[in-house]
Amino acid sequence: MHVRTVLALPGLLLSLSYAAGAYAAPACGAAPTGELRAERIAGVKPSRTEPGLYEGPVWIKDALYFSDFSFAPGFPSRIRKLAADGTVSTVVEDSGSNGLAVDAHGDLVAATHKYKALSRYAIADGKRTTLAADYKGQVFNSPNDIAIAQDGTIYFTDPDFQKAAAPGGQPVTGVYRVGTDGRITLVDGSRPNPNGVSLSPAGDVLYVNAGDGFLRAYPIRNGVPGQGKDIVKGLDIPDGMAIDCHGNIYVTEHPAKRVRVFSPQGKELATIRTDANVTNAAFGGADGKTLFLTGAGAVWQIRLDVTGSPY
Known about the structure:
With about 300 residues, the protein is mostly beta strands. It contains no helices and 29 strands. The two termini are about 25 Å apart. The protein is globular, with a radius of gyration of 17 Å.
C-alpha cells in the first residue's frame, strides 16, 4: 500500500438507517427472495437532450438526490432532488458528479470526475469543497462510487470511465481509502475499473465489484482493509451497490437490467428487474424500506420489507 496525506476530514461520520444497532431483529425486516420488478417513477424525466445516465442515488432526510450526467464532452453533470411529493428540482447545476453519499452533517459527498477529486457539496447552498485532491502528486482518473464508515473513513473507486473529463490521471484503476486524518491509501490497484463499493453494516467488510465480473470482500481489521476474497463471480458489468440491514449486497448489473441480491457469503437470494440499464441503488422512504434504483434516463422504486443503506 502507498500513502499520501491531503486534507483532514473533520466530522465525517456515517448516518445510515442500519447504524447504531438498528439492524437487530425485528426492526430489520425480511430480505427479498425470488423474482421481483421495480417500477419507474413517472415524475422523473430526462433533463437533457443528449444521452446520459442517472447515478449515485442517496436518500437524505425526506428526499432522494442523484447525479444526472451526459456523454457530451466533459461529461457535464448536475445533482437533482426527488422530493417526497414527487417533484424534481436541480440543487447543483454544474456538479461534475457521479456517485454520491451523505456525511454526518447531512451534506453530499460526491465522486467528481469534473475535478478528478472527491468533493463535498453543502446541501444548504451547493458550495463545493475538496476532500481528496490527488494521490502521489497526480489527480485521480474519474472517481465513481463512495462508501463512508461510521468513524468518517471514506472509501471510493477510481475507474477510467470519465477519465477524459479533465487532464491527468493515475497509472492504475484503483480503490482508495481516505482516513479521518486525510491520509489516502491505495487499497487495491490490481483490478480493471473497480466500480461499486459498499461497507457491511458492522463496518468490518469492504465490498467492491469491478470490470473483472467479481464481487470481492476485503476484511477490515483495525480500520485497514486486508487481502480481498472473491465471493461472487460472473457478474454482467456490475455497477453500484447497496447493503441491507442483514448485510446482504444489492449489486446492479448495468446491461442486464437487473439487481441481484447476495448474502454476505455470496449466495444469490433475489433478482430485481428493471426496463432499462441500471446503474446504482439506495434505500430510502419514510421507513427506509423503499429501494430506489437509477439508470438510463429513469429512476425506479420497489417496496421491500427490509431497511438498508441510504446510498
